[in-house]
């Protein structure tokens, strides 16, 4: 981690995480694809519940990234006992929170469905899907915790095995439960929960292999120190994904409001676009996840030149890949949306335009997302949280509330594009400020290797 060439190191770590993220995105899209064979209302329901799934994932990433970033820095500083305590603490905290969410949510399914933006015609499908997803919350959260912890220990391949196994299982169970057992949207939800439980079991088995940190109850700590460190490292992820969930809810509600001719079709279209965007975005997230342990361990080991080198390497590669994806999605927007809801002209018409708007600014996300991950891995909580809040919270929510009042449904379709642009503008000074801080640290350290890099 501290000596190997950056491109080679990030390549080894990011390939498994990219595969993991793509598989995760594919099996999220699998629900949308197979449910799309039922009707437009079922497709819309899955899109609405995605906001709740994003909250579950956000909490899992909060504990996983919070404990994981600490673990990477502790291992870099050779504080192995602290790293071991943090691994167990993060895991069991997440399980407790997930259990509370599952129990509380089961009593609030219908009001929660309306809050997410469900119409009366979508409601039965939303309730069926949401109820089962909530039951699986503790298993889903804990699988995300272990996935992140394994990555931050440098065991990205083990993390990949756990996530991809669950993803493949989900893609097989979806058609079996939805159509074979005639469970409809409930079958899609059950397939997701079973797959997440399988991933959790495999990931837990992976923590028992090699030199990975063991998860045991005896290592759980209730000291404020560990809670504070989880908060410090995980809060940016919680902000980013929780606000993403809230923003998605606002987008869906706005689509229903301003899609006056066919609100169900407008909601379904924006739901499909969101899934396509998340799939396209997942490769960048996976690439960034390969960068994070490199960043955390080298920052903990005061190898600041390597942190900067890794960041710029990832930005360059990410920009090129996202540019290619953007061109492809812009060019083939209509068949991409039609793949999920073939024959529904209203869904395709709304989704095609929204997807094209989102792809215009898409390549700039490489700079913003990787800057956020760098600040988070380095423990710069406030700046990382600010960037996490920017795209989906500080910008998207106000934009989607205001712009459609003047432009109608078009305002909903282009809201994400303007939010991404504003987020990029905010990222520039925060990123260069941190990079310059590391340069000053290098110059003040007096170490020959660092002086050479700084010059």
Biggest sheet statistics: none
| Total strands | 0
Binned, the helix content reads: over 70%
Number of separate domains = 1
Distance between the termini: 23 Å
Which stretches are low in confidence, meaning pLDDT under 50 for 5 or more residues running?
446-455
What oligomeric state is this? single chain
Q: Which structural category do the helix and sheet elements fall into?
A: mainly alpha
Q: Topology as H/E string?
A: HHHHHHHHHHHHHHHHH
| Rg of Cα set | 21 Å
Mean pLDDT: 89
Overall 3D shape: globular
Instruction: Give the strand content.
Output: under 5%
| Helical run tally | 17
Question: How would you concisely characterize the structure shown here?
Answer:
The chain is 85% helix and 0% strand. With 455 residues, it is an all-alpha fold.
Question: Which terms would index this structure?
Answer:
17 helices; 455 residues; single chain; mainly alpha
What does this structure look like?
The longest helix is centred in the middle third of the chain and has 38 residues, at 263-300. The chain has 455 residues and is mainly alpha-helical. The radius of gyration is 21 Å and the shape is globular. The protein has one domain. It has helices at residues 6-35, 40-76, 80-106, 109-115, 123-135, 137-152, 156-180, 185-207, 224-258, 263-300, 304-331, 333-340, 345-361, 365-377, 381-407, 409-445, 448-454.
